[in-house]
Amino acid sequence: MSGTEQRPGRGLLLIELDGDGGHPAAWRKSRTAPVAVLGPARLRDTVLAAESAGFHAATFGDGAVPENGAVPENGAARLNALQRAAFVAPLTRSIALVPEVDTVYTEPFHVSTQLASLDYVSRGRAGWLVRASGSGAEAAAVGREPAGSARRTREAAASIEVGRRLWDTWEDDAVIKDVATGRYLDVDRLHYADFEGPDYSVKGPSIIPRPLQGPLPVLVPAGLLPPEALAGGAADAVLVSAPTPDLLAAELRDTAASLARANPPGTQPALIAELDIVLDARGQSAASRLAELDARAFWESPRARFVGTAAELTELLAGLLTEAAGVRLHPAVVDADLEELAQLVLPELRRRRLLAPATPDATFRELLGLPRPVSRYAAAGTAVVHFPASRAGN
Amino acid sequence: MTEANIDGGFRPSGQLQLGVFFQGVNSGTVWKAPESGSQTDFESFRRIAQTAERGLFAAFFLGEGLRLREHLGRPHALDVAGRPDAQTMLAALASVTSHIGLVATQNTTYNDPADLAHRLSTLDLLSGGRAAWNVVTTDNAWTGANFRRGGYLDHADRYIHAEAFVETAKRIWDAWDDGVIAASPSEEAWAKPASIRRARHEGQHYSVDYLPRLPRSAQYRPVLFQAGDSPDGRDFAARQADVIFSAHPKFDDALEFRRDIVARSLKAGRGANDVKIMPASEFILAATPQEAREKKAWVRSLQIGPQQAIAYLEQFWGRELQDYDPDGPLPEIDPVVEETSETRGSGFHGAKARQLADQWRAEANEKGLSIRQFVSSKTSRGDATFNGSYTEVADRLVEYARTGAVDGFNISPWLIPTGLDDIVNHLVPELQERGIYPTEYAGTTLRENLGLATPLRPAAGVADNGVAVGGRHA
């Protein structure tokens, strides 16, 4: 029943490019000085390397600020993820750019505007990796209480709903530039979002016209949103994790089955498997590379971890891509593992016709096989702007 | 250099800088001409920013408005509206420019200090030290309807709030000592933990307890612009800002404003030359004076068309005036509201509508102006327009440079994306010939290019993690 079986050659590979790599000791194995991870040159080089390797999307983590004032192994210094994605947008042409953006300690109106803007600067290659922070340190930074799991779920669902509504508040053709009537906008094609949630309300309309893709693809970790939000179309893709690579395929099948029960036919979000990877590289076995890294800091991760050769990883990915629309790879050390992926893994998967073509100027929605919907307000056929009493009936 | 002496130890640099303000909304941008381009496509922004950089402009500005302008209860249809987020756009432009400063207008009322300071640090690091923040405030509940906090802030408190916000941001930017990060992968630790200080603030409206996540940039921290013009706004700028984006481009006003800012800076304990001034301005230029005059008439006719003129009056009359002839006299009927509603972009906060209508009718009558001519005179900010041949305007600018009335001009192009072409191709060389404009960038950071000093590092233990409790908000 999975969509990928009907669309061979549609497999997507995503790569997480935060910092020097997923492993907290990755900086010790990077080619560049530690400070380079906070500058433009390394960011550009890394994303261009991922694009040229044929990855379909790069994600940019924006993880927690350190708790308890402790500075962790990798310093936890980090450039804002959405701006990293924006910076590389004019330099790239095919790779989708997907920053992680929090929904709990952020302003949904700003998040929506920033993501829409990313879609403009990337010409339709933006996505949103949803995060719902439970971090006490992040709560303290904005003077709020740490969110428990119920609150995180509620905030994530609300922020996504606000984003989706705001992206639709301008119909596609709202900017008419009609010289004869002097109208830049057709106000009948602008709409208020009028979101009313338990924690806040957002009026709208958006302050930026509809994104090029319409709604940006929204990627959500499995388990974050309640089933009714997923059934309502909150997520375009769900990120699926399991404790080990062996368990991933079963977890993907279970997730697909439960989505199929809850969602109307044909509206299931795509599944993306999450996988940490450590490859044989630089003349060293993966296990020995990992041991060296682990000697410095422990890599705590909720994801399945693959440690082995490029050929073994290729087999694993070939299998996973029959169950999932895509796999997101978290390289232990970006410099070392990305090179192996580019040289050995992606070419072989392409040769086996398992990967979707990485097409210049394709939108992220197109990559995901998603249609571009018209604005929900246009579909309703009614203008929802409020008329003052004096104009009623016009 | 005596007749326009400014005193207070102020020394004119004899130079001017240019900035460009890509407005993105409102009536200043002509959208009706065949050459009017997209207001949202990245290529429009790239084109303007790269042209400005070719002309050695110091700064590229983006504005911000957190709610779409409305007119009689609906989004305003007649002007350019809808623009990308400033910092997202500037982060993208950082990768296709190399020297020009990137200035984001950002609001203190509807942002969190830790988040905003972090994003500005990001822009500063990604651009190699070219980021700036144009600090603006707002207070109204109408904008607040888009945010978690709603309309929480009183008008009277907006600068108190803004200043606490800016001080918190500066504390965040000061938190990392230099050389904190390991120089090579073989060092024992990524960072020296004791050399990063927490930033804390406890205020009436928000609190911050944050371990800042980024080191200083090549220019130490983002440059601060500020545009407030009220006495409170000017004092705020004199205490906190590096550059004032002023509303006083006319020579005599500019000189007077400079004197006032020098006095306020000295009173705030800063040097007479510490605060730069770049007024908002519009340039309508051509090869000859005659062509320039004709061009100006054409630009004005496109900026304020007949529909805009009527809509402008409707904002203050509070009723539809579609039956009035834009080329006829102002409406004889009275406004339906006692006071104009909340600002919504009009700027006539709480003016008594009927009184204003009487005053305007008298003024238009006296000068013999039609509705369209009258509205054009109210909205075009004629003082801010430099109109003439390249030579004429360059000659006029010499006086500004010589006296130090301003440090430069922040130009709003009336055409996107080609609106800077004639300035860069024809005016800049004239200014360079007169010795009042740079012939190359002074450096790679915005601070270097504006001639700003590096901020003093706060002494350890003084301003590091002090908790400012209550006092300011009492």
Features of this protein?
heterodimer; A: 394 residues; 8-stranded parallel barrel; 13 helices; 13 strands; disordered C terminus; B: 474 residues; alpha/beta; two-stranded antiparallel ribbon; 35% helix
Report strand % of chain A.
15-25%
**Most extensive interface: pair and counts?**
A-B, 83 and 81 residues
Structural class of chain B: alpha/beta
Beta-strand proportion of chain B: 5-15%
Give the ordered list of helices and strands of chain A: HEHEHEHEHHEEEEEHEHEHEHEHHH
As a percent range, the share of helical residues of chain A equals: 25-40%
The H-and-E topology of chain B, N to C, reads as EHEEEHEHEHHEEEHEHEEHHHHEHEHH
> How many distinct helices of chain B?
14
Radius of gyration of chain A: 22 Å
Termini separation of chain B comes to 46 Å
Low-pLDDT residue spans of chain A: 1-8, 382-394
Query: How many H/I helices of chain A?
Result: 13
In round numbers, the mean pLDDT of chain A is: 91
Tally of strands of chain B: 14
The dominant shape of chain A is globular
Please give the radius of gyration of chain B in angstroms. Answer: 23 Å
Shape of chain B: globular
Largest sheet of chain B: 10 strands, parallel
How many angstroms separate the termini of chain A?
Answer: 51 Å
- The share of residues in helices of chain B is 25-40%
Task: Tell me briefly what this model is.
Chain A is 36% helix and 15% strand.
Topology:
The complex is a heterodimer of chains A (394) and B (474).
Chain A: H1 3-6, E1 12-16, H2 40-53, E2 57-60, H3 81-88, E3 96-102, H4 108-121, E4 128-131, H5 136-141, H6 149-168, E5 175-178, E6 183-185, E7 195-196, E8 201-202, E9 218-221, H7 227-231, E10 237-240, H8 245-262, E11 270-279, H9 286-296, E12 304-308, H10 310-323, E13 326-331, H11 334-351, H12 364-367, H13 376-380
Parallel strand pairs in A: 1-2, 1-13, 2-3, 3-4, 4-9, 9-10, 10-11, 11-12, 11-13
Antiparallel strand pairs in A: 5-6, 7-8
Helix pairs in contact in A: 2-11, 3-4, 4-6, 8-10, 10-11
Chain B: E1 17-22, H1 42-54, E2 59-62, E3 70-71, E4 74-75, H2 86-94, E5 101-107, H3 113-126, E6 131-136, H4 141-144, H5 158-173, E7 199-202, E8 207-210, E9 223-226, H6 231-240, E10 243-244, H7 251-267, E11 276-277, E12 280-286, H8 289-303, H9 306-317, H10 353-367, H11 371-379, E13 385-389, H12 390-403, E14 408-411, H13 421-433, H14 446-450
Parallel strand pairs in B: 1-2, 1-14, 2-5, 5-6, 6-9, 9-10, 10-11, 12-13, 12-14
Antiparallel strand pairs in B: 3-4, 7-8
